[in-house]
Each structure stands twice: as structure tokens, then as C-alpha cells.
What we know:
The protein is mainly alpha-helical and 257 residues long. It is built from 10 helices and 3 strands. The chain has a 3-stranded parallel β-sheet with strand order 1-2-3, with helices on both faces.
Amino acid sequence: MDDEPVSLTVLKQLISKLPHCHARGFTQASAALAWCQPNDPDVVIVDYMMPELNGIEFTRRLCALQGRADTPLLMISASDDATLRTNALQHGVNDFMNKPVDFIELQARVRDMISLRSDQIRMTGQALTLAKVAASSTTEMPQDRILNINVTRARLAGDDALLAEVAAVFRRTAPQLLASIRMALSSNCLERAYAEAHSLKGAVGAFEAPEVLNAVISLERNTKTFNSPAALAAFSSVESLVERLLNELANIASTTD
């Protein structure tokens, strides 16, 4: 569950690549809870920062559903607050990952959680097939490029079709996020700018583009602290860097446009 389209696309496709796994994606916590009532998911992945309910409240409500208290749950968050992690674990979260997510590690974590679920179900005579994930080696990127395509492809388990799909989604959504941030900053609505910058950070995190990611993190930090001059300066850098990233993704995404 993630309200950011790029992140949700990546999560769904990578989990679906694991043997005998089918992923369902939700952008709203209420829809995810409604689906979980008649269904029995083996693993639930939830982003902490959601528009309706945050990840901890979602977890609390999921665990309250009949028969769902033992459902393995992985929470993903862009926050590095140790208190958040502790609070999440106290409310029923089994595992925790920070954004930007390493997708090879994500598959490995889900594999472990499926193993946990398998142990639970085995007591009732059922079984699950565990997934095995192999990490890919990485190479250096050319100095004149902002995207390390080799590392990005490796993080997506070497799946070029998924890479093309994620690139296409990013090219559709990133300009909209930039426009929303620009409008929010022009009206000095820094809370709105922060929310959109957070979404942009999640989208950029799907790729190995550290210069872009660091710029977006700076923008997010300055909007969160209501530092308007610094936020405007950071946005200027973000616009330029995201435009470069979009240009480099154009050839990749063209296969699915």
C-alpha cells in the first residue's frame, strides 16, 4: 500500500515476480482494509505516510480484524526517526525499511516474511513456496549522466520491462508533482509543498540518481521547517535535476508510452 504511483508500481511488480506470489496494490488505507476483511493476505506492505491513515494506525486496525493479528507486516518510511520504528514494532509491525528502498533487499525481506507466514500456515496443513532472491552486481555510471542505469536495473532484479514501466510512470507523474510544488511555493503554502516533495522523493527513490534524490530531500527538509527562501532555492535545483532525469529516462520509457 502506497499513495505514490511510482513506488506502488515497483512494489507490485517486484512482489509479483516472486514464485507463487500475486500482489494487490492500494493507494488508500480504507480500500486496503476493506479488501483484507474477506481475504487473507500472506504479507502486507504499507507506507507509513498515507493520506487517510498513517501506517501505524492502519496496522492497528488491520490487527483488530478477526484472524488478521498474525499477518506479517512490513512498513516502509522515509523517516529515520528511531521512535517511529519503535512505535511501529510495538503496534504489530514485523519489519521496517527506510526509503529509498533497496528492491533486492525488499524481495529478500518479503521472502523471510513469507517464511514466517508459511510456518504459521503449516500448523493447519498448508504450505507456501519460498522465494529466492539473487543480488546483481553493480557498475560505475558515466560521469555526464545523472542516472546510474546499471544500478537501477539491478535493484529492479534485472527486469527491463519493469524498468521501462517505472520510467513511464515517473515521466507521467513527476511533471505534475513539480507543478504542484511550484504552485504551493508561489502561494507560500509550505505544508502542501512538503507533502508533494515527500511524494516526489518516493518517486525518485525508485531510481539510482543520488544527486536528484539529495536535492529533493533538501527541498522536503526546508518545506518541513518552513524555511521559504531555502525551499525556493532547493526547488530551483530540483526542477533542473528532475528535468535531466526525465530526459535520460525518455528512451527507456518510450517502449511503454
